[in-house]
């Protein structure tokens, strides 16, 4: 279960000359104290390349995960021109935060969101439009447009940073035993009870979700080896049989475990 990194590639990238890179856009200030840009790995392999949106925010400010929560604004990414498409967005594991009584899934400070992009032959650049919600005491929608050149030349420094950011995306649990077990699902009280099976799980980091984002789930509350997670949308029909994602952090990085809600 331990993730491994390419030590040699890391050392090699760090030893490269510190030169300006063509595989990155200039920083843009999109809110007071908040800057963003797009960086790329440079190479195109089997019609795909890796890019990432990079954000720098003060610690008191935040933006949102793919499912923003009760009050947030879901991020939007769109490519235009040339037929390039976003194949995957590799969302880092977010924080489950209760802010002014509402539950949101957020990122604070510095964050990088990698993307795998399909690139048709002959495309020499990407035009990416981004819309985000940026919040401190008040929230505001912000938009930014980026033009990133694609010359097919490797950018080892940014490629390394993107690989490091990919390690923050939960990977599917492949252990011999489940990390948690569904102890009970109560449709009347709108709550899940889970039993912790693996002591490496950082319960405070646990996030329960479904693929389409609805309903929303609250933060995990632990008592002994039992965890209670409230289902926030009380008007949602019975979720029996619904597949849920249980994401959590460990000392080896974040993982995702999938199971279906049942009363067994």
UniProtKB/TrEMBL annotation:
Write the protein's name. Answer: Thiol:disulfide interchange protein DsbD N-terminal domain-containing protein
Domain Thiol:disulfide interchange protein DsbD N-terminal span(s) in chain numbering: 45-148
Q: Where is the signal peptide?
A: 1-22
Write out the entry's keywords from A to Z: Signal
Q: Among its keywords, does the record have Signal? A: yes
